[in-house]
Amino acid sequence: MPSNQELPSVFRDLRLPVVGSPLFIVSNPKLVIAQCCAGIVGSFPALNAREKDGDPIALEAWLREITEALDAWNQANPDTPAAPYAVNQIVHRSNTRLERDLEICAKWNVPIWITSLGARVEVNEAAHSCGGIALHDIINNTFAKKAISKGADGLIAVAAGAGGHAGPQSPFALVQEIRDWFDGPLLLAGAIATGGGVLAAQAMGADLAYIGSPFIATDEANAAPAYKQMIAEYGAEDIVTSSLFTGVSGNYLKPSIAAAGMDPDALESADVKSMNFGDGSSKPKAWSQVWGAGQGIGAVKSVGPARAVVDRLAQEYLAARERLL
Ligand SMILES: Cc1cc2nc3c(=O)[nH]c(=O)nc-3n(C[C@H](O)[C@H](O)[C@H](O)COP(=O)(O)O)c2cc1C
What we know:
two-stranded antiparallel sheet; 10 helices; single chain; binds flavin mononucleotide; Aldolase_TIM; NMO; FMN; 8-stranded parallel β-sheet; globular; Nitronate monooxygenase family protein; monooxygenase
């Protein structure tokens, strides 16, 4: 297992071994900047930056805003520099923007590239062309091997209980099988929401934790107030796994499904062919009020600034280390 010193240099000076994961619609420059300035990697899906026909390219504006804000932070706070940021590319045939977005990200020297839903050589090459590293998210060992064979530098193991398109496997099983053959950067996702959870991911063999749902309940997140409140109020029993909404199995808040007029305990399944990222979404408009979240949300007690989430994780991480040592 690599020690911290062997990790790619982008991960070496983090306050905490955590990546704030990309969240469709929810992640925006404000959240990314707050995460990075608090000392963890912040990220967003490129498809979140959308413009109307004829408007300047939003992705370019977002990358400028993030780059300038992090530069300004670093000048004002040389002792606590910002963490690097990541951009997520949905590598699915229905993502018609992919080629354009790769070019823009290479032009802006994006330091960390996260790919999901498809491993492609040219995406990894685009990341390497500007000195970036490419991490690919996977839900099993077969996809992990495929991702590395196509040139990804590291893996994000998405285990059971994760928000979004979670995998079905236990994190223990997933990490142990990957660590059998892979000693590169390995991130673990799935219901990690406390500092103790971050340390547990490392104890298991992962290098960093990949955390999404707790950042939905932040001031900076682009989410409806009722969505943020649900994350703060509910827990693992209030999450249901269903393929109905995007064609792929994902985790959702039961109360949001009930509010949309459906019975969350009697959902039909859907066909994977219904996935479509052409307009940035894979979810029909009628279900835009059906909200995704992972099983870890019981750790989130209130809505507040993203920095407060990172502070809590950092305190808990240190306390967990002390407890064990
Ligand atoms: C609302 C929501 C939207 C998501 N959107 C994306 C996305 O656009 N791209 C992606 O790679 N992962 C997406 N994910 C998955 C997360 O990046 C990450 O794998 C997951 O949140 C980790 O589990 P956790 O929420 O339990 O921490 C999404 C997750 C949620 C909850």
